[in-house]
Amino acid sequence: MIAPAAPTKLTHNEVIKEANSTLAGSIGSALANPSVDRFTDDDTQFLKFHGIYQQDDRDKRKAGKQFIFMVRGRLPGGVVKPDQYLVFDRLSTECGNDTLRITTRQGFQFHGVVKSGLGKLMKGINEALSTTLAACGDVNRNVMASPTPATSPLVEEVLDHARRISNALLPKTRAYHQIWVEGKQLDLTGEVEGDFVDPLYGKTYLPRKFKVAFVIPPLNDIDVYTNDLGFIAIEENGKLIGFNVLAGGGMGMSHGNAETYPRLASTLGFITPEDLEAVSKALVTIHRDFGDRTNRKHARLKYVVEERGDDWTREELERRAGVKLQPAKSAHFDRQGDLLGWQKQLNGKNFLGVFVEMGRIKDDDKYQLKTALRKVVEQYKPQVRLTPSQNLLLVDVNDADKGGVTAILAEHGIPVENQGTPVRLASIACPALPTCGLALAEAERLMPNTISRIEKLLAEIGLADEEIVVRMTGCPNGCARPYMAEIAFVGKAPNKYQLYFGGNIQSTRLNRLYKEGVKNEDFENELRPVLTRFTQERQRGERFGDWCERVLWKEKAAAAEPAVLSN
C-alpha cells in the first residue's frame, strides 16, 4: 500500500498572516506600552509590511541586545519634494541617528530609531504626505524608475506610470493608518479580524517580496533585469509607445544551497501603456498563487519562472491580464550608473548629480553633506531624486541659482566637479553590520577603505582612471546587486568573502564566482594578478568584466574539461 503524501507544512510567516490578515498584530498596544523596548517575534514580521525592521546594535551585544529600528520610506521613482526632504532631514535627527541612507531601490532609510521615537517618526513621515507602507514585507516594494531628467524626454511620463503602478499594488489594510496616523490599535468594528481579505494579495499576501522597475534605454540605471517585474520603455519618434515586459529577476541566494541563485529576468513581450496595471496585477497574482509557501528561501517569483518556463509564464500572464503580449521590441543598453556634477535638463533647467558614498547622508568633521543639502533645499527648493546607485540629484535648478548651490556645498566640503575616482563613483554597498541581522560580514563600513586600496592598486598597474563597477554585500541576499558587478565581494563569514568577477557595464550579465573565503587583508593579493593580466591582454577599450568573460572564464572552463585520452 502506498503511504499518503505528507501534508504540506507552511512556513511560520504563512501561519501568522492567515491568522492576522490585517497585518496589525499587537503592534498598537505594544507601541503604547513604555515598559517594553521591543515587539514580539510575530509582530516583527508584521512590522515589515509597515516599512519597519526591528534590529539591534550588534557591536553592543556583549552588554545585551539594545533594540533599535530601521524605517524605510516608499518613494516611487525616488522622487522627494523639497518640503518632504526637509521633514525627513529633521526627523532623522530627532528620531534616528542623524543620518539618512539612500537605498538601492530609491528610498530613504532611517537608522538607529528607538521604540519611544518610532511613533513620532512614522506620524511625521505620513504628515509629510509620504508613507512607509509596503516598503518591506511580502508585497510589492518601492517601484523604481529612471530619475535622471537629462537622458530622455520620456522620464517624467515614465515616473508618472511608476507612481500609478505603485498605488495600484498597495495593500488595502486599514491597520497602517490607524496605528501610525491615528495612533491606536486597529479597531475593526463589526468585523472579524480573520475575515479581512486584501482584494489583490488575498488573505496571506505573497510568499515573499516582489519588486517592480521601469527603465528607459539606453541607460540601465535601474538594473532592470534584477527585478521580479521589469518594464523597458520603448520610444518611437519621441513618443512612448509601450514597454517590453520582463519577469523573474532577482538577486538573493543562500550560501551552500543550490536551490537558490541569482537570476536575470526573462523577456516575455511588449505591451502598450494602457495594459500596465492589468499586467502588473496579473504577475503579482502568479507569484501569489504559484510561489513556494513552504520554503522562504525558495519563495521568489524567479523560481516559478525558471522552473515552469517562459512560455508558461507568458501564457498564464496573458490569461490573467486579458492581454495578448506582442513580440518584444528592439531595446539596447549601453551602460548603467548616474550622471554626476552639473547637467542640463531637457526642460532647460539644471540638475546636480551628487555622489553619496555608500548612500549615507551624514556630517563629519570635513564632509558635512547633511547640513549642506538641508541649506540648499531650504534656500533654493530643488526637487530631490534618489538613484539606484545610492546617489542624489538636485533637480530643476535655475541657471541663476547654480553658483549659490555650488557655494553652499563647497563651504561644507562637498565638491561639485571631480567628486571621486571612476572606481569610487561606481561603487555601492549594503549597510550590513552593525544593524542588519542577516549580515555575515562588513560592507558599508569596510567598502570606502576597500575602494581606497583598489584605487592604489589600479594606480600601481597603470589603471588609475579605469572605471570598474565594484559592489559589496555583507551576505548573499544581494541588496546591493553584487551579482551584476564587474568585481563583487559577498560576505560569507566574519572577515571572509566570496569574490565574483565578470558583470558588464550594461547590467545585462551575471558575474561568476572566482574564489571562496577571501579575507579582507588578502583582497589585493587576489586582485593584483588578475588586474595585471587585464592590463596586458585587454582589447582596445575593453572593460574588466568583458575581459573576464572573453578570457578568464573560457580558460577556467577549458581547465575544467576532462582530458581526452589518446589511443
Please characterize this protein's 3D structure:
- The chain is an alpha+beta fold and 567 residues long.
- 31% of the residues lie in helices and 17% in strands.
- It has 16 helices and 19 strands.
- It is globular.
- Mean pLDDT is 95; it is low at 1-5.
Count of individual beta strands: 19
SS-based class: alpha+beta
Question: Termini, distance in Å?
Answer: 53 Å
What percentage of the residues does DSSP assign to strands (E)?
15-25%
What is the tally of helical segments?
A: 16
What summary fits the major beta sheet?
5 strands, antiparallel
Enumerate the strands of the largest sheet in spatial order, edge to edge or round the barrel: 1-2-5-4-12
Mean pLDDT reading? 95
Helicity, in percent?
25-40%
Shape: globular
Q: Topology of this structure?
A:
Layout: H1 12-19, H2 27-31, H3 41-49, E1 52-56, E2 67-72, E3 79-80, H4 82-95, E4 100-102, E5 108-113, H5 115-127, H6 155-168, H7 175-180, E6 212-215, E7 229-236, E8 239-247, E9 266-271, H8 276-290, H9 301-308, H10 310-321, E10 341-344, E11 350-354, E12 360-361, H11 369-380, E13 383-386, E14 392-397, H12 402-411, H13 422-425, E15 428-429, H14 447-460, E16 470-473, E17 487-493, E18 496-501, E19 512-519, H15 523-537, H16 544-560
Parallel strand pairs: 6-7, 15-16, 16-17
Antiparallel strand pairs: 1-2, 2-5, 3-13, 4-5, 4-12, 7-8, 8-9, 10-11, 11-14, 13-14, 17-18, 18-19
